[in-house]
């Protein structure tokens, strides 16, 4: 199915505006919408559904785009907002980990198996999108229902490439090479997807905790460890992940762990899902953290600056923050982490006890 065909059919039924959180299952549709300037990137799926609610109240037929991993984020506004107030929204959900398809990465197994159950439990009727005729099915269902979902299996929607330009010098991989040398042997938490895979290739360590799912939760996880240890704890975050649950910055700033250094590798995109834009280009994260109570904050644009600022922040009490601006994209042919999540947990706990 071509992205433009799906878009035309949705518009034929007067659906729009479009908002959500990027997903690799149907990245071509996200990119097509971005090219038309008809997509609003939202920090997390719950906020996307709330934004859709406001659009519905203004007389529109909103469409929320997400991956099934994000269903958990929208359960609260679905149950206490959409369902309660009888608000109508259409969800397009990428079905990662569909048990009838080839086995997906471990972080998608549980939600993949339970996606239909979760939707049913929160009064969201669903159907697998198989043809453009299913748009009419969804439109008809919305006449007598609130939230309706169409599930999209990977490969259904064709790719749609977008042109990416960047003024930044370093790739994320190059930045991680510098950071890994300066933080070797320290406790390190690396964020969802490609950043963890790149760190694994550059400098695997028993004191690395690779977070392959749980997008946006790395700050809370690392804080929980930092408060129990006297040694330095490093967070390797991403802009999309950090924006998803920005409130943890206030908690870190309030508790003030002296041993915590929070590094955000900011490529202004969801690089793991097809380079859709985040909102970090219009958000001064390096300033936000100071208002949340962090002790020091720096921003780096070059490898030289990264080496110098990183060393300075490692030598002073925190919590400290380093914003590293990097080019969008991932290293070619990067392998998956070969450890199981359970193995990551065991070796990490053994190493830091």
Question: How does this structure look, described?
Answer:
The chain has 353 residues and is an alpha/beta fold. The strands form three sheets. A six-stranded parallel beta sheet has the order 2-1-3-4-6-5, sandwiched between helices. A six-stranded parallel beta sheet has the order 8-7-9-10-14-13, sandwiched between helices. The N and C termini lie far apart (52 Å). It contains 14 helices and 14 strands. Helix 2 links the parallel strand 1 (18-20) and strand 2 (39-41). The radius of gyration is 21 Å and the shape is elongated. The chain is 41% helix and 17% strand.
Shape annotation: elongated
Order of helices and strands: HEHEHEHEHEHEHEHEHEHHEEEHEHEH
Name the beta content range: 15-25%
Overall pLDDT level: 95
Number of strands: 14
Using only C-alpha atoms, the radius of gyration works out to 21 Å
In the sheet with the most strands, the strands line up as 2-1-3-4-6-5
- Termini separation: 52 Å
| Count of alpha/pi helices | 14
Global structural class: alpha/beta
